[in-house]
Amino acid sequence: MGYDEELLPFLDNALNDNSSNKKLIVLHTYGSHEPACNRFPSTYLKAFTQQEDDNCYDSSIAYTDKLISQIIEKNTR
């Protein structure tokens, strides 16, 4: 299974496509849907609490936050 960050090259292609002045770009992400531990690379897993499910969810939120930051950065160039 892929991760949401794999959408970034498609976003780059869409942003660099100059065939139209107007664009609507939709990125359909997995976000933090269950199972949350499958929504991000294992290197992003952090221990916020003693509860594994909570850690998975919180880590998926942190991963998604980073992804959204990258998307915003690409759109402001």
From TrEMBL:
One term of GO molecular function: transferase activity
InterPro entries in alphabetical order: Alkaline_phosphatase_core_sf, PEA_transferase, Sulfatase_N
Membrane-crossing segments per the record: none
Entry GO terms, CC: plasma membrane
Name this polypeptide is given: Sulfatase-like hydrolase/transferase
Start and end residues of each Sulfatase N-terminal domain: 2-74
Family: Belongs to the phosphoethanolamine transferase family.
